[in-house]
């Protein structure tokens, strides 16, 4: 299964993520979930970005709305537009989950 | 063209998820996809006509009407609406109310489903 997981909040969701298994997984950070792409605590990136085998995306509009730029975003994360997310859902992944 | 169904539960005021859902719907429609939206839980209140557009609150009525005119199907959970005092006569033009069966049928038939949970 190809699964796209949406994270919309800045909270500890690693437990849920750890339990999710898929042949291919994309983690799409939206709304306050984009903080996982830019914030480091104690010099460490969000544990969300440690999900093995996943591809990470963050909605550029939501990153910019919160005062961040591409320079602030982890190199693991690709910035995407709403149109890109539509393509990911329709072309790249079969199922979605919203955490 | 494929079909995307969005099930949306968060409220308009106090959540960003309805804004996200409508922007995603607009982007998917711009790419030629058919989009359906199911409003349930607190999300039903965004579809009640006669709401005032406060400057600092999200107000999606205009966007909603634009997307309906372009073919988006928006259906409100009638039980959730009635529970909130939102009656049949309060439904804006172009929208409809239905039971959960409508959403269930869409989830089976649609090409892609994104279920956005509520508060």
Which descriptors apply to this entry?
heterodimer; A: about 100 residues; alpha/beta; Hypothetical Protein Ychn, Chain: A; 5-stranded parallel sheet; two-stranded antiparallel sheet; 4 helices; 7 strands; about 30% strand; B: about 120 residues; about 35% helix; globular
Account of the 3D structure:
The complex is a heterodimer of chains A (99) and B (119). Chain A is built from 4 helices and 7 strands. Chain A is an alpha/beta fold. Chain A has one domain: 3-Layer(aba) Sandwich (Hypothetical Protein Ychn, Chain: A). A 5-stranded parallel β-sheet of chain A has the order 6-5-2-1-7. A two-stranded antiparallel sheet of chain A has the order 3-4. Chain A is globular and about 35 Å long. The model of chain A has no long low-confidence stretch (mean pLDDT 94). A 5-stranded parallel β-sheet of chain B has the order 4-3-2-1-5, with helices on both faces. By secondary structure, chain B is α/β, with parallel strands linked by helices. Chain B is globular and about 35 Å long. Chains A and B meet through helix 4 and strand 7 of A and helix 1 and strand 5 of B.
Query: Largest sheet of chain B, described in full?
Result: 5 strands, parallel
Task: Report the C-alpha radius of gyration of chain A, rounded.
Answer: 12 Å
Low-confidence stretches of chain B: none
Intertermini distance of chain A = 18 Å
Mean pLDDT, all residues of chain B: 92
Give the total of beta strands of chain A: 7
Shape of chain B: globular
The first-level CATH class name of chain A: Alpha Beta
CATH class of chain B: Alpha Beta
In terms of topology, how is this protein built?
The complex is a heterodimer of chains A (99) and B (119).
Chain A: E1 2-7, H1 14-19, E2 24-29, H2 35-38, E3 40-41, E4 44-45, E5 54-59, H3 60-65, E6 77-80, H4 82-92, E7 95-98
Parallel strand pairs in A: 1-2, 1-7, 2-5, 5-6
Antiparallel strand pairs in A: 3-4
Chain B: E1 3-8, H1 17-30, E2 34-39, H2 61-69, E3 73-77, H3 78-83, E4 96-98, H4 100-109, E5 112-116
Parallel strand pairs in B: 1-2, 1-5, 2-3, 3-4
